[in-house]
Amino acid sequence: MKESELLSYAITILKQSGLVFWRVPNGAVLHSIGGKVIRKCSPIKGFPDLAGVFPSGKFFALELKTDKGKLSPEQTQWISKLNMSGAMAIVLRSKEEIKDFVDAATKIKPPVT
Prior knowledge:
This protein is an alpha+beta fold. 34% of the residues lie in helices and 27% in strands. The protein contains 3 helices and 6 strands; from the N terminus they run H-E-E-E-E-E-H-E-H. It has helices at residues 3-17, 73-84, 95-105, and strands spanning 20-23, 28-33, 36-41, 50-53, 59-64, 88-92. Strands 1-4-5-6 form a 4-stranded mixed sheet, with helices on both faces. Strands 2-3 form a two-stranded antiparallel sheet. Strand 4 (50-53) and strand 5 (59-64) form a beta hairpin. Helix 1 packs parallel to helix 3. The longest helix has 15 residues, at 3-17. It starts with a helix and ends in an 8-residue tail after the last helix.
């Protein structure tokens, strides 16, 4: 399975769950300007593929990798920084892991106000 397939699956299941999330395009991004296509690199190299907020308000970030996919040094640094800051940043490597994460995340209760 390709990482792009994992990303597509994760976006679909996250949309269905109702969780607040967004995709973080962190590779090269193509921009069409005046009929020309310009390729720009992301200024946040290594940031996880998806980010969002649990119903409790806690921030999460998901890096999607295949079984054989390796984290870059920048990805490792981002995951570490986010976790040290109180967020939850994890690597998910299969559709099953993605589904398990979303199932658990939707069971988190919002804070009582």
